[in-house]
């Protein structure tokens, strides 16, 4: 069960600047009064009863809180406190100031596979802990892989955003069509029962992109991307993988497998020779291999541009809806309609995947 505090958040924390905003809330920098420590406060509007569509569903927030409270690991964002009132929930989270891992890597002139492996290893350590607790993330992508800070001598990777995460219970079957097209596993698209193996498919995609600067299944449209995923249609083009080791390709191939039961687990990934070499030859092969930085920089720049474009597009869409609705007398109704148009969850699998399409697709 999720544990909430009934205290008033302002009594325990000083509320600071806004760090980010979403449809149903804001993230603000907060300072703990007792210790002076800075945290990130996620202030969420909660949907009231009576059929209102303005605000987040309380049950989904409670599920995310319950999951985060169970995940205490160095490579997973930490949840410190949760407060709730009649119309708002506040999640006090670890303040992560290092930005996205992919942005950090894109600033480099070159990167050896051995350096990239150190990042992948931390991601896998976090996943191994999650999966050992029967929890799947279901939304692994570059935007949700962060660095605690950039200046630390030991760079610490953090997995964030557990809004789609799910905790499995023995004997139950779970299906979902939520995710980002170029990162979701085939079983998500086919609306089949899911497991933690869906995360491992995403790790295969992320590794492919990290090494080559190319997305393995990206098509010209969302539908084409989804078809490529279901068909497991990808290849290692020499132009993009000429500096990639054979062990790295083998690592990816053992993850991008349609049968989820045949994919490597996080535990098995950590024992794979690419991550943990067992011979001098394997070590030498890694040391001679590097990621395609020129192409990776291009991919990351396009990804960031798409994020900005999508944000402007959503904002314009909401503004246009408000202009259409401006003559309505019921302001609350107008807000509900405009918000629900963006956050509608009652959709068929393909349209829901399109609706949740992230900026990096």
UniProtKB/TrEMBL annotation:
InterPro entries: Kinase-like_dom_sf (IPR011009), Prot_kinase_dom (IPR000719), Protein_kinase_ATP_BS (IPR017441), Ser/Thr_kinase_AS (IPR008271). Keywords: ATP-binding, Kinase, Nucleotide-binding, Serine/threonine-protein kinase, Transferase. ATP binds at residue 42. PROSITE patterns: PROTEIN_KINASE_ATP, PROTEIN_KINASE_DOM, PROTEIN_KINASE_ST. One of its GO terms (cellular component) is nucleus. Residues 342-361 are annotated as: Disordered. SMART domains: S_TKc (SM00220). SUPFAM superfamilies: Protein kinase-like (PK-like). One of its GO terms (molecular function) is ATP binding. Its EC number is 2.7.11.1. It holds the Pfam family Pkinase. It is an enzyme of class 2 (transferase). Residues 13-275 form the Protein kinase domain. One of its GO terms (biological process) is intracellular signal transduction. Belongs to the protein kinase superfamily. This is non-specific serine/threonine protein kinase. It comes from Oryzias sinensis.
């Amino acid at each position: 069960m999720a544990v909430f505090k009934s205290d008033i958040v302002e009594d325990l924390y000083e509320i600071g600047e806004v760090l980010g905003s979403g449809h149903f809330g804001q993230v603000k920098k907060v300072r703990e009064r007792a210790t002076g420590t800075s945290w990130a406060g996620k202030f969420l509007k909660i949907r009231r009863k009576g059929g209102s569509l303005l605000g987040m569903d309380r049950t989904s927030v409670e599920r995310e809180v319950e999951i985060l409270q169970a995940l205490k690991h160095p490579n997973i964002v930490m949840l410190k406190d949760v407060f709730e009132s009649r119309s708002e929930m506040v999640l006090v989270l670890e303040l992560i100031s290092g930005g996205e891992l992919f942005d950090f890597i894109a600033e480099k002139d070159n990167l050896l596979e051995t350096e990239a492996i150190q990042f992948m290893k931390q991601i896998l350590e976090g996943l191994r802990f999650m999966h050992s607790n029967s929890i799947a993330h279901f939304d692994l992508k570059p935007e949700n892989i962060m660095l605690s800070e950039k200046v630390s001598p030991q760079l610490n990777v953090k997995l964030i955003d557990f809004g789609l995460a799910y905790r499995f219970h023995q004997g139950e079957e779970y299906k979902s069509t939520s995710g980002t097209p170029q990162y979701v596993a085939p079983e998500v698209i086919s609306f089949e029962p899911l497991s933690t193996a869906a995360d491992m498919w995403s790790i295969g995609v992320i590794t492919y992109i990290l090494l080559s600067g190319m997305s393995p299944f990206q098509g010209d449209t969302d539908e084409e991307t989804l078809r490529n995923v279901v068909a497991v249609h990808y290849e290692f083009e020499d132009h993009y993988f000429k500096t990639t080791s054979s062990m790295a390709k083998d690592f990816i191939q053992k993850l991008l497998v349609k049968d989820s039961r045949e994919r490597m687990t996080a535990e098995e990934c950590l024992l794979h020779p690419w991550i943990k070499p067992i011979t001098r030859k394997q070590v030498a092969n890694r040391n001679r291999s590097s990621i395609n930085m020129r192409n990776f920089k291009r991919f990351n720049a396009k990804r960031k541009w798409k994020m900005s474009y999508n944000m402007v597009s959503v904002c314009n869409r909401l503004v246009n809806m408000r202009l259409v609705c401006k003559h309505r007398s019921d302001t609350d109704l107008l807000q509900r309609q405009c918000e629900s148009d963006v956050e509608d969850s009652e959709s068929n699998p393909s349209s829901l995947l399109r609706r949740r399409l992230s900026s990096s697709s």
